[in-house]
Design goal:
By secondary structure, this protein is an alpha/beta fold. The protein has 14 helices and nine strands.
Amino acid sequence: MRHGEFVSCSGEYVDEVLAVFMPSGKSYTGLDQIEIFCHGGRRVVQVVLEQALVAGARPAEPGEFTKLAFLNGRIDLAKAEAVAEVIAASTEASLRAGRDHLTGHYSEYVSRLRSDLLAALADLEASIDFSEDDVAQIDTVVFANRLQVIHNAIQQLAATYLGGRIVREGFRVAICGRPNAGKSSLFNRLLEHERALVDPEPGTTRDYLSEWIDLGGFAVNLVDTAGLRDAGGRVEKQGQAKAQQIIERAELILWVVDMSEPNWFEQAGADLKAFSEQTNLIIGNKLDLVVDGCSELSTEVLAVSCVTHDGIQEVQSAILALINDMMPDLTSGQVVTSARHKRCLDLAADGISRTVSALESGESAEVLAFELRQAGDQLGEITGQVYTEEILGEIFSRFCIGK
């Protein structure tokens, strides 16, 4: 580390700085690297950068430093993607998942699965190359069982993506129901501030409102949707169409009903038939207006009052319980958070399944070897043992500049 003055190319004093030289093999990128530490003022940083460009440097491409780290063997591809995960982390769960991937346990596990698969492939190819020598031929039953163990492990890892996607992208909650049931009021109570306009007139919400909250360390995306009914004008109808799209993409539907209305329980049951395949919770609102008690309530209904705030904490707890039910062991370091990794795992598992089927139907060893090689390449794409420029472009284009 050196202390000195940063001067412009014309010799003008710019700032008092520190600079450090990092030799190749010891730097983040694996190349010779210099870092300059100046004061944090916006204009100071801008001038230092401008003068570096005048002197012959060029701006880095998005993710270029991390891409160089991968290409120079400093990190594998899964770790490179974990850098972006850590930077983008907005909750404790997403930060923990990114950190765990950076430790390398996830990469090591995927590499071990690939090694097991390539070992099976090597035995198969040996039986092809030395079929006339004294090399033992493979036992088809034993070999199929061997492949099935690897297949099951890959599928189990892929299954963690349900929770891993929620950790990385958030848990989507659609607040739905008929007009004037109190959807926007519930939205405000869960946000803990008045974000949505509330009015007794039905159809106030014409478009959806979307906000994020941190619930128990998880990012939860709350979406307040337009009330669903047959009536309404053209604009309200457009809002209802958007509401339907949001509902289809949501992990959870909070169906809000007005408990002060007669036959609300039967009405909610009829409405929810259209969403029977999605996870939903019935939120019985306006508890403060219910005079005769709630004899119709069951374990399927959470009673709340958005006026008195009664029951809001129970709704939060219910949402968090559903999220935790979907979560894999986040401390294992073996959680898939990337859609790309999930696709590679699925393709690898499919390739092994085709190999087992081909083995049972008596296909040639050459056909089996081709399928296994393809499956091994899919696993290799996760860690970067196998890659193309197209894969690298897809990954690093999503990075920030300077990372």
